[in-house]
Amino acid sequence: MHNEALEPKITLNNDVKIPVLGLGVWKASNVEAADAVSLAISHGYVLIDTAKQYGNEQGVGDGIQDGLKVAGKNRDDLFITTKVYSGDQGYQASIDAIDGQLERLQTDHVDLLLMHWPVTDMYNETWRGMEEIYRSGKARAIGVCNFDVERLTDLLAQASVTPAVNQMEFNPLIHQQDVFELCQENGIQIEAWSPLGNGKLLGLPLLQEMATAHKKAPAQVILRWEVQSNVIVIPKSVHEDRIVENADIFDFSLTDDEMKQINQLNEEKHSRWYDDYQWYGNPAGDPNRIMKA
User: Fold this and answer.
1) Is the four-CA dihedral 293, 78, 232, 122 of positive or negative sign?
2) Which letter does DSSP use for residue 274 in this model?
3) Shortest CA distance to 117 belongs to which of 174, 188, 193, 177?
4) Is 116 assigned to a binding site?
5) Mean local confidence (pLDDT), 44-61
6) Which of 21, 53, 84, 265 has the fewest CB atoms nearer than 10 Å to its CB?
7) Above 90 in pLDDT, residue 284?
8) pLDDT level of residue 4 (50, 70, 90 thresholds)
9) What CATH number is given to the structural domain containing 74?
10) pTM for this prediction
């Protein structure tokens, strides 16, 4: 199935184009990820987002192979993202880890490689390693995740390559406006993880009213708000009906007033499990504890 709306549309700061909506596979097992990725590709998805830390790169790779066969497409039709695991941070360690990740994903390059978390005293060296990966052609673009203003400012002062993307927690309840503005000033594209707020937003009366008015689901209203806010979204699902529904957001628009009303839901509160990642680093020095979830 061809869905032109899912084709690469946003141009990153290095001229690589990325779709505005894709599939996330956080918390999916290898088997679930393989099925979800294959289904998504068959329904026109191009952007697939995974991470070494998710433990499902192999399943994603299997799903890509299966999905490409079913859809009659090839690797170059997809936009594959994975991430540098915090246990692999550092200049040489990040370089050494990429080949294993590519092998599991069954490709010779990823379209976007992100640093999963800014581990204290390591992220600048990790970025230097990622710049080498970028120059080698094993990643068409590189970026970061979960960088706040302080750490992003520090990275930008030392980086040779400006991050193309900052993937961060973004949904109607948390906008991280200071980070958002810093990224805009530096030509860094925002990509939202947990765009639906772990489903906690779906019951909000405001969103339900808008969904009824547009004959859409609340999740579709949220994703549409994000896309109209110039944010890339990667909603996670392993269910075919949800995968299809999440992509069906390009035949309607929210009014300026509706956008403002959703903007006003902002509480700037991270989800409860955010701090479990210990994204600021781990004094105990155990890299496997840096990210629990």
Assistant:
1) positive
2) G
3) 193
4) yes
5) 97
6) 265
7) no
8) confident
9) 3.20.20.100
10) 0.94
Q: Is 262 part of a structural domain of the chain?
A: no
Number of domains in the chain: 1
Q: Please report whether residue 90 resides in a domain.
A: yes
Name the token pair of 196. Answer: 């639906």
d(CA 21, CA 246): 9
**pLDDT tens per residue, range 9-32:** 999 999 999 999 999 999 999 999
Residue 257 resides in a domain: no
Q: Which token pair is 5?
A: 């709306």
- At position 206, the amino acid (one-letter code) is L
How far apart (Å, rounded) are the C-alpha atoms in residues 105 and 88? 17
Positive or negative torsion for Cα 260, 262, 265, 269: negative
Domain span including residue 186: 4-197+229-237
Q: What does the alpha-carbon distance between residue 122 and residue 290 come to, in Å, rounded to a whole number?
A: 13
Tokens found for residue 71: 């859809």
Confidence of residue 1 (pLDDT cuts 50, 70, 90): low
Which amino acid makes up residue 286? D
- Alpha-helical (H) ranges within 186-255 are 205-214, 218-228, 240-247
Q: What are the catalytic residues?
A: 54
Burial of 56 (0-12, 13-18, 19+ CB in 10 A): buried
Residue located via tokens 């706040």: 148
Contacts of 19 (CB under 8 A, 6+ apart): 6, 7, 8, 9, 10, 45, 46, 47, 79, 232
Alpha-helical regions (H) of 20-118: 30-42, 57-71, 91-105
